[in-house]
Structures are given as C-alpha cells and as structure tokens.
Amino acid sequence: MSIRKLTIMALLVAFAVAGSTFISIPTGIARAYPVQHAINVIGAIILGPVSTVVVAFVTAIIRILTGTGSLLAIPGSIIGALCAGLAYKYSGKIWFTGLGEVIGTGLLASLVAVPYAKVLMGTSVAALFFMPAFLISSTIGAILGILVASSLRKTVLVRYFNPTLFIK
C-alpha cells in the first residue's frame, strides 16, 4: 500500500470523525450520522472496496471511543462501505455506488444489527427495528457522497490521486 493511499485513508477517517461531531440528525430511535455514509461513497470511488472498509472500521472504532458513535457504527459503516466499494468496482457509476451504500447499510446492516445488538449490547428488538434509522442516515449520506464525488471528479487533485476515475 502506498503512502498516497494511506494519506487519503487517514484524511477520510478524519473527515468522517470530525463530521460526526457536527452533523447528526435525529431519526426517532437513533441519531443519523450521514457523513460516514458520504465518506463510504467517496472512499469507494477513490480507494476501492478493501481500503474503504478499513476507513469505515477505523472511523467506527474512533467514534465509539470518543462517544460520537455506538457499537452499531461497526456493522452500519463496514457493510455499507463494502457494498459501495463493490458497486463502484463492478459498475464504475457514482450513482450505483450510492445505491450500494444504501442497500449495504440501510437494508443489510440494519438486519445484521439485530443479533449484533442482542449479543454485544444486550438489546432485544424486532427484525426491522433499526431499518428506518439506517435507511434515513445512509440515504442522506449517499446523496451527499454522490454530490461531493461528482464535484471532486472534476478536480486536478483527484486526478492526481486516482487517474482511473476518468477512464470509466
């Protein structure tokens, strides 16, 4: 792994952690932190699936340790990052990357969160309990990520970091 890629990863982690301290939306049972989902979309496009999953995991751990995220940040961010990364890898389309984030976090991670919450948090909830909050957060974040990624795609800086963005 190159220094360039590690630097981008560190910057994305910093943006996600900082963004989670400033931007949150109440969604009933939980608070939505859409910046993490936007970073997942941007990271998926710039870095690919594996590095984006690492960014999501490190971000989730830091957020848990600093009190800006719960244990649900782990499945919520990692599954979405993986789905977004794979969506971009196989489609090359920014909008499909956002859809991958919403499906990964809003649907899959919300279902994984139920047994995860039972085992690690001692909370017993119905199968669809987390889905509305996860869907709201990931949809807002995916839209934000698509908008930022579309704008970044036109900059010289992103061309320097990932010239393959302009081949597809």
From TrEMBL:
Pfam family, any one: ThiW
Gene3D superfamilies (alphabetical): 1.10.1760.20
Keyword Transmembrane: yes
TM helices/strands, residue ranges: 42-62, 69-88, 94-114, 126-149
UniProt KW keywords: Membrane, Transmembrane, Transmembrane helix
Domain of life: Bacteria
Keyword Ribonucleoprotein attached: no
Protein name: Energy coupling factor transporter S component ThiW
Annotated source species: Lysinibacillus pinottii
Organism classification: Bacteria, Bacillati, Bacillota, Bacilli, Bacillales
